[in-house]
Automatic annotation (TrEMBL):
Belongs to the peptidase S41A family. Residues 1-26 form the signal peptide. This is S41 family peptidase. It comes from the Bacteria. InterPro entries: ClpP/crotonase-like_dom_sf, PDZ, PDZ_sf, Peptidase_S41A, Tail-specific_protease. Keywords: Hydrolase, Protease, Serine protease, Signal. The keyword Protease applies. CDD domains: cpPDZ_CPP-like (cd06782), Peptidase_S41_CPP (cd07560). Residues 99-169 form the PDZ domain.
Length: 558
């Protein structure tokens, strides 16, 4: 790191000397380049003196890391320094690939359990099942080992092995297994199917290398297997984005060749670029819906925004995240990298959907959303009004689905997961994923299972009341309203059994999804969940109503 700083210092000094000698610039205190060179010189001198004379030793890497982090606080959260040991994470973001065992884990108390096993993965080949408890790794006990440490040990170069001991979740029998790590490729398209008999459905989780080709292949296979399709949904909910080029490839599936999908503009004008489709589309006419929510970001928003701007399809769901920034990776010394925001991207109508203004900070360093008064209006191909500065606003909005507090507690404490494990080992097989239902008798069995479990929790209303009581005490109003607050508190006290019954439908669905996952893996879980997915049902209704679909694509929104 010190060698790196010395190089920077010499480079800055040389640049200053050359420019001064050539007379190109007349440096003064306001000159940006002079300020950069000056402050690099001060920084290097400051660190040299501090390191030489400070009473205690200062670890260079730790001190410099803090300096880098302080600089990054002035930028957006997507600009970051990538240390050498974190390069695998950067690779995974771009490729969706990593070296590991192909399983998800969760730590609950002293032990860590396997929660998901990817089909065909090293864990799957070794016979490991969801619910199995990790007892030993590489000859060392896994008891009380942090989840992050276990996850780190499970990853590694393909071909390397890891000796592990697992405990059966019900019998307690321990089994030794040798796991050979492989290259794990997380699927960008994790489910393709048909809903409501004749509506195609594709769920895309990320925009990594070749993900666009995967979506095209999934779509073409859907059409081949189901020639009577009335429409198709592309589900980008929860998709954080990824590679911009892949977003263009996905858009190209549904729009003609040589169509502008996105453009980028930044400080370095030579890097500004228009991205157009380059291939023949797979289908330009089948009605299309793109599903979004607040976690749909970046490349996902490029696809949704371009389909909306070109009036190729409808966007249904909730407003997207609003990340209209493009990052470029720059090589740094000692195998480190800088991931830096270099441009903003613009959809075909010319709008930038970036929702947070990182360039203008409040006095306390905080940033805010772009105010409505500064958002500009643009028009789609059909003349519909769309706005910039706030993510992608759906053509048809739906309310997000919230999970009850009792359900959150049951998930967090792994009671739904553990009951599914018990169910799996007592039922050799179940109905197909889309047909499986938990009977009332089985739900009653789940209630009995919870009798000895502690799933106490506070409702949001109780939390709000507690906050109000504390505020009243601080402001000396409590004594005057104490009796009324106590009466209200008694009325609000919840009965856990009643909460279970009141939220039976929701909890039953969560149980069904978890149980189905044991028999049919993640595709089965997704297939089961689509039956009660509000966004999917709303989209299917519109795709079945062609008059409504066409009206929404032509009506002028204000």
């Amino acid at each position: 790191m010190r060698a790196f700083l010395n190089k920077r210092k010499k480079l800055a000094a040389l640049l200053l000397l050359l420019l001064t000698t050539a007379g190109i610039f007349a440096f003064n205190e306001s000159d940006r380049y002079f300020q950069i060179a000056k402050n690099l010189d001060i920084f290097a001198a400051f660190y040299r003196e501090l390191n030489t004379y400070y009473v205690d030793d200062l670890p260079p890497e730790k001190v410099m890391k803090k300096g880098i982090e302080a600089m990054l606080e002035e930028t957006d959260p997507f600009t970051d320094f990538i240390a050498e040991e974190n390069l695998d994470d950067l690779k995974f973001m771009a490729t969706g690939k990593y070296g590991g065992v192909g399983a998800s884990i969760n730590t609950n108390g002293e032990w860590t359990s396997i929660t998901d096993v990817y089909e065909g993965s090293p864990m799957d080949k070794a016979g490991v099942k969801p619910g199995d408890i990790i007892v030993n790794m590489g000859g060392k006990s896994a008891k009380n080992l942090p989840q992050e440490e276990i996850s780190k040990q499970l990853k590694g170069a393909p071909g390397t092995t890891l000796d592990m001991i697992f405990r059966h979740p019900l019998t307690g029998v321990e089994t030794a297994r040798k796991i050979t790590r492989e290259e794990i490729n997380v699927r960008a398209v994790n489910y393709t199917g048909v809903v409501k008999n004749d509506i195609g459905y594709i769920r895309m989780t990320q925009f990594t290398e070749n993900s666009g080709a995967m979506v095209r292949q999934a779509f073409e296979q859907l059409k081949k297997d189901n020639p009577g399709l009335k429409g198709v949904m592309l589900d980008l909910r929860g998709n954080p984005g990824g590679l911009l080029d892949e977003a263009v490839v996905v858009a190209n599936i549904f729009v003609d060749k040589n169509k502008l999908i996105v453009s980028t503009k930044g400080k370095v004008k030579n890097w500004d670029r228009n991205y157009e489709t380059t291939e023949q589309p797979a289908d330009m006419h089948l009605p299309l819906v793109v599903l979004t929510n607040h976690s749909s970001a970046s490349a996902a928003e490029i696809v949704a925004g371009s389909m909306q701007d070109l009036d190729r399809g409808l966007v249904i769901g909730q407003r997207s995240y609003g990340k209209g920034l493009v990052q470029t990776t720059r090589q740094l010394p000692y195998n480190t990298k800088l991931k830096v925001t270099t441009a903003k991207y613009y959809t075909p109508s010319g709008r930038c959907i970036q929702a947070i203004d990182y360039s203008h900070r409040n006095d306390d360093g905080s940033v805010e959303l772009v105010p409505d008064s500064l958002r500009k209006s643009f028009t789609t191909a059909n003349g519909r009004t769309v706005k910039d500065g706030g993510g992608i606003e759906p053509d048809v909005k739906s309310d997000p689905t919230f999970i009850s507090q009792v359900a959150i507690t049951l998930i967090r404490k792994q009671f739904i997961f553990d009951y599914a494990t018990r169910y799996y080992y007592s039922h050799p097989k179940i109905a197909p994923a889309t047909a499986f239902t938990l009977t009332d008798a089985e739900f009653t069995d789940f209630e009995h299972y919870l009798d000895s479990k502690d799933y106490s929790y506070k409702t949001r209303s109780e939390d709000a009341l507690e906050t109000f009581k504390n505020t009243a005490k601080r402001e000396k109003y409590y004594d005057a309203v104490a009796q009324e607050l106590e009466t209200l508190e008694q009325k609000m006290k919840h009965d856990k059994k009643q909460d279970l019954l009141k939220n039976k439908t929701e909890i039953k669905r969560l149980l069904e999804e978890e149980i189905v996952n044991r028999y049919y893996s993640q595709p089965g879980r997704i297939a089961r969940s689509l039956a009660w997915d509000n966004d999917v049902n709303a989209a299917a209704a519109i795709l079945h109503d062609q008059a409504k679909y066409k009206q929404l694509l032509t009506v002028r929104r204000q």
